[in-house]
Amino acid sequence: MAKTVVPFTAQLVKFETSLPYAEVTARLEAEVSKSASQNIISRIQEVGHQHELVSLVNDVTKGKDFLYFMQLPYSGVMELLEGTKKPTVVVYTIGNPLFAQQIMKHNPFAAYNIPPRFLVLEKPDGSGTTVAYHLPSSVMSIPGVNDPALQAEVEALDTRVEQLVEKVTAV
């Protein structure tokens, strides 16, 4: 048995907005086609050919970049700990299998961080919302390896993710 530990540095990106949590999440859910993404994982698993995958993704996204996969609400768990009302905290998992294919073609280990996740956090004083995520290029590249094709793919994803977050947090 061989064990390898590869250090890498992830970058956390945070966007702060004065928009209320409900507005940010409503915008995010619209941008990632939440309603059209119902059962998307099982639907993806049923496709048998690349053209079917492309068609499915395009049918759901309607020209947008991302699909909705799931969300994990953490507020209730935090409230149980202290027995008091806490600001809303939800992690959204969003992505696009077509982008994932291109990245994993160059780095199968990137699958560990695909699809991307967003932490959406209501500010404790109710004055707005924070949206945070790991910069895709910081967690999907191969540490210490110069792969221009992979770098181009993850940097393109960086841009798409940033554009999405800018859109849902814009005042």
Describe this structure in words.
The protein is of the alpha+beta class and 171 residues long. The chain has one domain (13-169): TATA-Binding Protein (2-Layer Sandwich), CATH 3.30.310. Helix content is 44%, strand content 19%. It contains seven helices and five strands. A five-stranded antiparallel beta sheet has the order 1-5-4-3-2. Helix 1 (21-31) packs across helix 7 and helix 5 packs antiparallel against helix 7 (148-169). The longest helix is centred in the C-terminal third of the chain and has 22 residues, at 148-169.
Which H/E pattern describes the elements?
Answer: EHHHEHEHEEHH
Largest sheet: 5 strands, antiparallel
CATH H-level superfamily: TT1751-like domain
CATH architecture: 2-Layer Sandwich
Beta percentage is: 15-25%
Secondary-structure content class: alpha+beta
Tally of helical segments: 7
pLDDT < 50 runs, ≥5 residues: none
Q: Report how far apart the termini are.
A: 54 Å
Shape: globular
- Total DSSP E strands: 5
Domain DUF302: 84-136
Protein name: DUF302 domain-containing protein
Organism: Cyclocybe aegerita (Black poplar mushroom)
InterPro entries: DUF302, TT1751-like_sf
Describe this protein with a few key phrases:
single chain; 171 residues; alpha+beta; TATA-Binding Protein; 5-stranded antiparallel β-sheet; 5 strands; globular
